[in-house]
Amino acid sequence: MKKLLAVATIALFLAFKAVPETFTADTKASAIHWLGKKASGQHDGFVGLKSGKLNVEAGVPKNGEFTLDMNALTCTDIKDSESNQGLIEHFKNEDFFNVAKFPEATLAITKFAPLAAQENSMANYTATALLTIKGISNEITFPVAFSQKEATAKATATITIDRTKWNIVYKSKSVFSTLGDKFIYDDITFDVDLTLKK
Cys-Cys link to 189, which of 13, 35, 55, 154 (CB 3.0-4.6 A)? Predict the structure, then answer.
């Protein structure tokens, strides 16, 4: 009788155990906006999302992998087409992302930790991830707002990185002390808005 009860309990547990689900990023409905600042102003634009997936269990995000297309960098604040293209080409060369050698960047999220509600924030998780740019990987953490409704999931995050950790040191005041007011701030901010579907 005890054996039958044990078997029944295990069967019941397995029947109700959450089944992991994989959500794939809708690259057309998703957006990654970048912002960089310098002493005399700022520039912003978008970076392409090539692919992505997020593993979810019982409505809780577990881990995921995302690939960025560095060839799809755009600038939205410069209206003159020649100046705009000149800036993008500069971003793509060795001073910044060296896109010819490193056409992709990756974000591998290894875990999500529940985040207590905070004032003026919708974030409900803290993500830990490995960000690889120019072949250099560094661990980062950032708050994420995640929600799921049936076959669609949404995730938003603001990620700020110190570019010098990925050997992007062009006009960095923390690296070159003689720049005066010709420097570019080390921080780059990415506002991420993802739509994912099963």
Answer: 35
How would you classify the pairing of strands 152-162 and 136-149? antiparallel
CA distance 185 to 174: 9
The pair of three-digit structure tokens given for residue 107, joined into one six-digit string: 């974000």
Q: Is 3 among the domain residues? A: no
Each residue's pLDDT tens digit, 132-149: 999 999 999 999 999 999
Per-residue pLDDT band at 20 (split at 50, 70, 90) = confident
Domain around 30: 24-197
3-class DSSP state for residue 3? helix
Q: What is the DSSP string of 109-163?
A: EEEEEE---BTTB---EEEEEEEEETTEEEEEEEEEEEEEETTEEEEEEEEEEEG
**157 in Cβ contact with 146 (< 8 Å):** no
Transcribe 20-47 into DSSP letters: PEEEEE-TTT-EEEEEEEETTEEEEEEE
